[in-house]
Amino acid sequence: MTKTRLFRLWLALGSMFMILLIIVYWDNVGTAHFYLHTSFSRAHTPEPLPSAGQGAARASASDVDEFLEKLLSVTAAAAGVKPEDALPGKKREPPPPRPPPASSRPAPGSQEESVRGYDWSSPDAQQGPDPGGRQAERRGVLRDFCANASFVFPAKERSFDDIPNYELNHLIVDDRHGVIYCYVPKVACTNWKRVMIVLSESLLDRGAPYRDPLDIPREFVHNSSTHLTFNKFWRRYGKFSRHLMKVKLQKYTKFLFVRDPFVRLISAFRSKFELENEEFYRKFAVPMLRAYANLTSPPSSVSEAFGAGLRVSFAHFVQYLLDPRTETLAPFNEHWRQVHRLCHPCQIEYDFVGKLETLDQDAAQLLRLLKVDRLLRFPPSYRNRTARSWEEDWFAKIPLAWRQQLYKLYEADFVLFGYPKPESLLRD
Question: Where exactly are the structural domains of the chain?
Answer without folding.
Answer: 1-92+134-259+333-386, 263-332+389-425
